[in-house]
Amino acid sequence: MGEQRVPGYNLAEKPWLTARPVNGGPPVTLGIAAALARAHELEGLVVEFSTQLPAVLRQVLLPVVADATDAPRTLREKGERFRQGMFTPAEVGRLEAYLDKHRAKFDLFDPVAPFGQVAALRTAKDETKGSAALVATAASGNNVPLFANRTDADPLDLTPAQAAHWLVHAHCWDTAAIKTGVVGDPQVKAGKTTGNPTGPLGQLGVIIPTGRTLYETLLLNLPVTPPGRLGSPQWLRGPHGPEWKPRAAEGLLDLWTWQGRRVRLIPHQNEAGELKVARVVISAGDRLTPMSELEPHTAWTYTAPAKKTAMALPERRPRRHTQGKAAWRGLDALLAPTRQSSEGFETSILLDEASALQETGSLDASYQLQVETFGMVYGTQSAIVEDVIHDTIPLPLLALHQDSEAHQLVLDVAEQAERLAKAVNNLSADLRRAAGTDPIPWDKSQRPGELLLHTLDPLVRRLLAGVRAAGSNEEVLEKGRLAWEEVAHRHARDAANTLLLAAPAATFGGRTLDQPGKAGKTLSYRLGTAGANFRAQLNEILPRYADAMREAAAARNTENGPALDAESDPGADFDH
To answer: If 0-12 CB within 10 Å is exposed, 13-18 middle and 19+ buried, where does residue 459 land?
Structure first.
């Protein structure tokens, strides 16, 4: 094909991974070997696009560590390795020996078995695509991101480091639908393959527990795995050809390094002698069927079986994150260590193991565990990327224990925030009915409750961090709960006052409407009634603060007589 001969680019040694040093300073860029040897000195990886992080961990770093040093076989072993705080000299030696032995497997441009690719992958007409086809944020074909500053026709020269990141990202997150047909694939029809699913991570709500260092993050993401269940990573299963098939994952390392696409990067050297990737070939890859029971990076939803028989088991599906919802709004799934019935949630095994490490003393109750969540929102038959979901929250380890005060507190706070938003939406609906208009539909426009949740978001995150720092100190936890209710009460009142002040004069008299489905029965909607109903809901949702204010009011009444002001009666201003 007359392609330009270019030098290799070995990911084991070339600087392509960017990381933040623990003690501050500018980010450093390292190869795999150096990044792992210095993992205890690095805070975490820095990526160009958030969903590249789980891709790099799963496709590269975690399988190298597990294959070279083995995954922990017991929880005790995992705890011991975690307490080390760094790879031992012996483990560093094993990592270096592994990467040296398989050095050729990590060459991005190896002519025989390029990393994560198929050598000589080609179409019948030797067509190629611009490298934008790899990049989720770039305009390519039907995938045109909002406010894209380039078109499909604009060339996109990727550095080898960028190409490596987008290569593993494509294996994990690529869009579905039609893929280019290639020579040697017996399933090609009319020059294409159809029915392709998204990359395997696109079907999950990805959960990545992170620690204080890259080393701790790696250990937190290495599940306890008995011998014989690890399997082999993709670089030891190849070289891959253009053919593909639906199949089950053969061990954890096969799952992590799943080749969701067949890809070939086409490198060239520009006039300055710089190595670049501007053209690629991307075709169908292996289809993961069924979803692996080994998957550690997602929570699960259990539903009753479609066919109810004596032998039917609940259906277990990955729980995907919801677009536009903060991660703390899904705490019911993150904090569900075991399934309680035929319907419910089960958290990631990695969070279960973090909880067990705390119980056994390997992690302190106040350990600064963070949980990062990732997801991809696809549109038009999953053929385009519409949005990316990414969030980080502090997670108290004690909250993972169902019988702990911290567990109940954080679940209560998340539920209270949702109920406050609903109460504000109900107030808005009542005022609109009183004014003679319909309530805002739940799926159209932005309802005021969403604005309240946005206001409460930093408060909930601060509370989670406070609960984590408090550990098992129930007195501190109770003070934190009361402080949360006080601040949440104030913000909810502010949101309600905004609606009340904007209400037109017609809401004072209000309207009387027939109740749907109840012949002869009516409901009256007016400003005073709406305010009173909201005040009642507010005091019901935040009972500790309401009780504290009543006690304070009673104390003042005893001293000063029966006078009662708005500050002593939560929400009293809604009567005005």
So the answer is: middle
- Reported pTM: 0.89
∠ CA 285-289-292, nearest 5°, is 110
Separation between Cα atoms, residue 117 and residue 97, nearest integer Å: 23
Q: Report yes or no: 35 and 56 within 8 Å, Cβ to Cβ.
A: no
Given a contact cutoff of 8 angstroms between Cβ atoms, the answer to whether 47 and 173 are in contact is no
* Torsion, CA 563, CA 566, CA 570, CA 574, rounded to 10: 120
The answer to whether the beta carbons of residues 286 and 259 sit under 8 Å apart is yes
* Distance (Å, whole) CA 498 – CA 479: 29
Measure the CA–CA gap between 360 and 18, rounded to whole angstroms: 34
CATH, range 403-575: 1.10.132.100
Residue-by-residue pLDDT tens, the chain, 576 positions: 445 677 899 999 999 999 999 988 999 999 999 999 999 999 999 999 999 999 999 999 999 999 999 999 999 999 999 999 999 999 999 999 999 999 999 999 999 999 999 999 999 999 999 999 999 877 555 555 544 555 555 678 999 999 999 999 999 999 998 999 999 999 999 999 999 999 999 999 999 999 999 999 999 999 999 888 999 999 999 778 999 999 999 999 999 999 999 999 999 998 888 999 999 999 999 999 888 889 999 999 988 777 777 666 778 899 999 988 999 999 988 888 755 555 688 899 999 999 999 999 999 999 999 999 999 999 988 888 999 999 999 999 999 998 899 999 999 999 999 999 999 999 999 999 898 888 888 777 778 999 999 999 999 999 999 999 998 899 999 999 999 999 999 999 999 999 999 988 888 888 887 777 777 787 788 888 999 999 999 999 999 999 999 988 888 888 766 554 444 443 343 333
Specify the DSSP class assigned to residue 307. Answer: S
Task: Give the Cβ contact number of residue 397 at 10 Å.
Answer: 25
The residue written with tokens 């076989």 in the block is 73
* Domain limits, the chain: 403-575
Question: What CA–CA distance (Å, rounded) separates 405 from 403?
Answer: 7
Q: Quote the radius of gyration of the chain (alpha carbons, Å).
A: 28
